[in-house]
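Run log, item B.
One chain of 84 residues. Sequence copied directly from the ordering sheet:
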Amino acid sequence: MKIITIDKNNIDREHICCAIGNDKQNQTRAQTKKDWLKERFNDGLAFRRFDQRGKIFIEYIPIEKVWKPLLGKNYMVINCLSSS
């Protein structure tokens, strides 16, 4: 398997694993997530996934930019990790 880095340059054409189905509801969910990711890439958000279609990915961001109520310095926060 190959690890794919998803960023602002390729997110529109890459599958992000959050919605496996191709029905309208899952397409809407995936687009909402992609829009959210695009807004956070400049904050250092990283999104990596395997080149297999499925839920195998990790999403992380510097703690200084995390949107959760966490404090710290020089740490990375895993926002989402999935493997199935």
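Observations after the first pass:
- The chain has a mean pLDDT of 88.
- The CA atoms of residues 30 and 76 lie 24 Å apart.
Flagged for discussion on Thursday.
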